[in-house]
Amino acid sequence: MLVWGTLLGTGALQPPFVLADTTVIPSVVASERYDTNIYFAPANLLPTSTRLNDFVTAVGGAAQLLHKSRDLEVSLTAGADVNAYVYNKGLNYLTTRAEGYAILDGWVGQLAQGARLRVDERFRYTPESPGFLTGAGVGAGAGDPFLRGIQAFRANTYANTVSTNGSYPVARGLALEGNYAFSIYRVGSVLAATSTGAAFFDTTVNNWSAGPRFVLTPEDSSLLSYQQQLISQNLTTGNASTIKTNTQSLSAMYTRVMPDWRFSFGGGVTLVQPASKSFPTGSITVSTNPERSTIVQLDLSRRATPSFYLQAGALISNLGQVQITHRLSERLSLRGSVNYAFNQIVPTQSGIQFNNFTVSTGLDYNLTRTMTVGLFYNHMDFKTESPTLNYSILRNVVGFSLTAQWE
């Protein structure tokens, strides 16, 4: 799938083609950026001759496959890009990514009227793992349990999440909903600060939830659910025994959906084993389009997620994200986001915690119907605290990009 997506993205310099209900949309992108800290690590933890800042040239492409019929809607996007440094040439790297979904409502609706089923998948390989999820999937977190603001040292990482969401109508105004997600996080070579004692953990997560949804009005509904998360981990650089963590949650969620906005909030309690600690959890999500030219997304959440850096087990993760896109004119648009995360490893008395504050902004100008030039700036301030390792990093990235997409 990745090879197919990469070849289409980098070699198909032609308009999309349509076969029945199937469309292929190729795209290519080239960018130049200046990065003040390519290692995601402080200078005092690296060899004295290490150069932290560098200029990076990136060239890549992707292809999106869209298929829609009466019973099925499918989207698959796959791509890759090459990143080359001016001074640290030994760090040149290739990233690959793939994501997609299948909506099977029409198919399962033949078995039971009103039934719904959706399958999602997201894969990435990169030595510069992002701390936050950005883009259109911010509100739901896109189901990735590893994008909760943790910014580890530079290391080759693989992450993949497959999830299924289903709903089965039981009676008028009542449906049973269920979710299952399988996630993996794997670390290859660690490229920086290997003598500091920092540890990475290969992680596998099985997560499922189930409960009734009550439809109160055509716009309002509430969901009661039980969720269990089974985390299995091994130290990346050793043969230590497997570490297992089990989290169980009870929660209630209220959702209101209108034509131009969506709002949901809820809360509950989560028990983390074997720590035998309980924590209040909850979330608030708002996505709205108050004007045709403005899109606003807000996501606030507190939940138990896997800890894969410094210590295995579970995190109590507090995350806040705001993303705004505003079209200034027919060709020019402005985008910006603010992200904050405060994570504590359970038990919280361990003294291990992560703070991450990120601000991103950019301008996009449509040169033609298919070509866009963009300017961007990212500011990152993250801090790691533990009994054996404490450090703070300020990182700034500025650059421009040229994107062509044949829709």
* CATH topology annotation: Porin
Mean pLDDT: 89
The shape is: globular
Q: Uncertain runs with pLDDT below 50, 5 residues or more? A: 1-20
**Count of separate DSSP helical elements:** 2
**% residues in beta strands:** over 45%
Radius of gyration: 22 Å
Distance between the termini: 21 Å
Report the CATH C-level class. Mainly Beta
Helix/strand class: mainly beta
Helix content range = under 10%
CATH architecture tag? Beta Barrel
The main sheet comes to: 18 strands, antiparallel, barrel
SSE pattern, N- to C-terminal: HEEEEEHEEEEEEEEEEEEEE
Number of strands: 19
Q: How many domains, in number, for the residues?
A: 1
What's the structural blueprint in terms of helices and strands?
Elements: H1 2-11, E1 17-19, E2 22-35, E3 54-68, E4 73-85, E5 93-103, H2 105-108, E6 116-126, E7 155-171, E8 174-190, E9 201-215, E10 220-235, E11 243-258, E12 261-273, E13 277-291, E14 294-307, E15 313-327, E16 332-345, E17 353-366, E18 371-385, E19 391-405
Antiparallel strand pairs: 1-2, 2-3, 2-19, 3-4, 4-5, 5-6, 6-7, 7-8, 8-9, 9-10, 10-11, 11-12, 12-13, 13-14, 14-15, 15-16, 16-17, 17-18, 18-19
